[in-house]
Amino acid sequence: MTVTRAVVRGVGHYLPERVVENEEFVSIVDTSDEWIRTRSGIERRHFAAEGETTSDMAAKAGRAALDMAGMDASDVDAIVLATSTADLTFPSAATMVQAKLGTGGFAFDIQAVCAGFVFALSNANALIVSGQAKRVLVIGAETFSRILDMTDRTTCVLFGDGAGALLLEAEDGTGERTDRGVLATDLNSDGRFRDILYVDGGISTQTTGHLRMQGKEVFRHAVEKLAATAHKSLEKVGMTGDDVDWIVPHQANLRIIKGTASRMSVPMERVIVTVQDHGNTSAASIPLALSVGHARGQIQKGQVLVMEAIGGGLAWGSVVLRW
Ligand code: ACO
User: Fold this and answer.
1) Is the CB–ligand 1 distance for residue 114 below 6 Å?
2) Whole-angstrom Cα distance, residue 276 to residue 288?
3) What CA–CA distance (Å, rounded) separates 62 from 47?
4) Which of 19, 63, 114, 204 is least surrounded by Cβ atoms within 10 Å, i.e. has the fewest?
5) Of 200, 186, 209, whose CA–CA distance to 315 is shortest?
6) What are 160-200's pLDDT values in tens digits?
7) How many CB atoms neighbour CB 63 within 10 A?
8) Ligand 1 in contact with 312 (CB < 6 A)?
9) Range of 79's domain?
């Protein structure tokens, strides 16, 4: 049986020039490099320059993915951009990227906070499988530095800015798990947990607001829900942790990444880790990790990847993909 698969043709990323080491926070809040490293695994993060926006970074990551694929902007018929930190209330940051790159077709944003990239990838896959688009640029891009409360040590040290992108193209597959491309997805949300991770402002409250998080509570949900969603999407294609070449997790906290890998019985040698250099870049963290993992020579054609993420909502999910 012939089925349509969404296959990766290109990957790329962009990180702002400014690197902020843990030490910089010592003069801002009551913290230490040692606390940040041991509790989160983070050593540094990038912050966008003044005037540098989410769509600027997204366009650069998208351009890099197009270059790797050897495609022109005119070849792309959709942009799906995951972000919680769009440049403006409207139009969508995706349409701004469309104008910057010169792509045709259509473009829209997806907002599922740190789970945004798996939601975007799942939606892009659906567009390709249903025949609504042939080539889709899926981007995760954030400027979380703009919503940090720099007087709150429990959150301001954890986040960073950046962007990553995948270029997906329709390809005929056999319907078997040996096909390349997206093999399974699993999406979840539970709005009862809105108070443990949110921004205390928004359009209808007339403020931009700051990120607020009950870190311990989020942590407790994260390990359990991430392992469960990864198992669920692997089960859909008859796979287990043993079949996975790489876990590419949302990069929020090294202890969450290790806890989830352990629950999946996957050794850390088969986990892509970038949290030490990027911090938590929300929807950008997985495509950034994919791009860095590919550039390091870790991720190779034909390998099985499972991506998993959780964020505000709560919203969480996973995608199994053969690279
Ligand atoms: N420097 C020094 N001390 C600190 C800091 C800091 N930056 N931040 C907190 N502390 C203190 C606390 O005040 C507390 O002190 P107390 O015991 O005197 O009250 C102590 O350190 C321990 O704090 P905990 O919150 O218990 O520390 P924990 O080990 O749980 O680590 C952390 C906190 C890193 C936030 C962790 O809970 C975590 O990573 N949670 C998950 C975050 C996450 O994954 N978010 C994902 C999604 S994000 C999104 O969707 C936008």
Assistant:
1) yes
2) 13
3) 19
4) 204
5) 186
6) 999 999 999 999 999 999 999 999 999 999 999 999 999 99
7) 18
8) yes
9) 3-173
Q: Measured from the CA of 40, which atom of ligand 1 is nearest? A: 34
Strand ranges (E), 64-105: 78-82
The CATH number of residue 80's host domain is: 3.40.47.10
Q: Rounded distance, CA 118 to CA 187, Å?
A: 8
Same domain, 23 and 47: yes
CA 37 to chain centre: 21
Residues 217 and 162 occupy one common structural domain: no
pTM: 0.96
Is there a single domain that holds both residue 197 and residue 295?
Answer: yes
Would the CB of 10 count as within 6 Å of ligand 1?
Answer: no
Catalytic residues: 114, 250, 280
Protein residue closest via CA to atom 13 of ligand 1: 154
Q: Is the minimum distance from the CB of 196 to ligand 1 under 6 angstroms?
A: no
Q: In this structure, are 240 and 212 located in the same domain?
A: yes
Tokens describing residue 23: 């030490």
